[in-house]
Amino acid sequence: MIQRVLLNITPQTHVRATQGDSIFFRIPREQLRPHGLKRLMRLERYNQYKIDLLTEAKLNRFQLPSQGASITFFIPCPRSWSMKKKKAHHGRIHQSTPDLDNLLKAFTDSLVAEDKYVGHYGELAKRWVDFDIGWIEIRIQEPTEVSLDPPMRYEVQ
Predict the structure, then answer these.
(1) What is the widest separation between alpha-carbon atoms in the chain?
(2) Is the pLDDT reported for residue 124 higher than 80?
């Protein structure tokens, strides 16, 4: 049996924060230079995304399983695209930034303190959608049993 969960939140990528980024939270906004303010806003947006995603998961009573989760990130087409281009890309595989691994990293960082217990993901994908907001779809299926027989040896003659 497959369990399907939809989290109604537009996926965001992981932001790599360094120890030096903490200075941006101590300086008043009006004293920050433009690049510092931009970095602070990016960090704040990522932190808010993590909070919102965790809230959405709790509302849906979703917990990340240790195995069998197939995750698809649905990312909205840019507003600058024409209607024709948006319709042409709707549902297609998303092959540009953000990277799939960074989307997954932000997803797992939001839902669990340590993701070391996750041993298996099913399918991972990111797709375009012709909507103003995106979402995350998780399908959970028990993985099939794996044979632990040693591999066959081929003799060279």
Answers:
(1) 77
(2) yes
